[in-house]
Amino acid sequence: MKHGSLVLEKKEYVYIKSLLNVSEHTEEGKVQTSLDKFAEELKTAKILNEEEMLDDVIRLNTVVTIASGAVWEKTIQIVKPTEKDLKNNKVSILTPIGIALFGYALNDVVHWDLPGGKKEVKILKVTQKKGKESFSTLI
């Protein structure tokens, strides 16, 4: 892990913690497993103010290109659950892949239990959405 632990912006951290509290009793096994693992990782996360945030860290509204070896490569945007739109590659933070990537950084390799089984996913590109789409302006 490039930065030693997950890196989250303070307002996003509060938002994510509230989502986890609401979602802690999901009946979907893979999602619950991912939520539990993510909750454990949050215990050691670095929490930064907005002005301290690193541009290479995946957060809400980040567009990220990922690959699993030579098997597949995909570009997705991590969004709030209410903004998910799979046709436009907008993936909810509360999906296994959204949870798996959140707080990781460019070039990190993430090992996570996804719906297709345990996968190794490499983060190839991270692009922050700026301006009015920024999370801090949404809360």
From TrEMBL:
<dbReference type="InterPro" id="IPR023459">
    <property type="entry name" value="Tscrpt_elong_fac_GreA/B_fam"/>
</dbReference>
<dbReference type="GO" id="GO:0003677">
    <property type="term" value="F:DNA binding"/>
</dbReference>
<dbReference type="InterPro" id="IPR001437">
    <property type="entry name" value="Tscrpt_elong_fac_GreA/B_C"/>
</dbReference>
<dbReference type="Pfam" id="PF01272">
    <property type="entry name" value="GreA_GreB"/>
</dbReference>
<keyword id="KW-0251">Elongation factor</keyword>
<dbReference type="GO" id="GO:0032784">
    <property type="term" value="P:regulation of DNA-templated transcription elongation"/>
</dbReference>
<dbReference type="GO" id="GO:0070063">
    <property type="term" value="F:RNA polymerase binding"/>
</dbReference>
<feature type="domain" description="Transcription elongation factor GreA/GreB C-terminal">
    <location>
        <begin position="55"/>
        <end position="127"/>
    </location>
</feature>
<keyword id="KW-0648">Protein biosynthesis</keyword>
<protein>
    <submittedName>
        <fullName>Transcription elongation factor GreAB</fullName>
    </submittedName>
</protein>
<dbReference type="GO" id="GO:0006354">
    <property type="term" value="P:DNA-templated transcription elongation"/>
</dbReference>
<dbReference type="GO" id="GO:0003746">
    <property type="term" value="F:translation elongation factor activity"/>
</dbReference>
<dbReference type="InterPro" id="IPR036953">
    <property type="entry name" value="GreA/GreB_C_sf"/>
</dbReference>
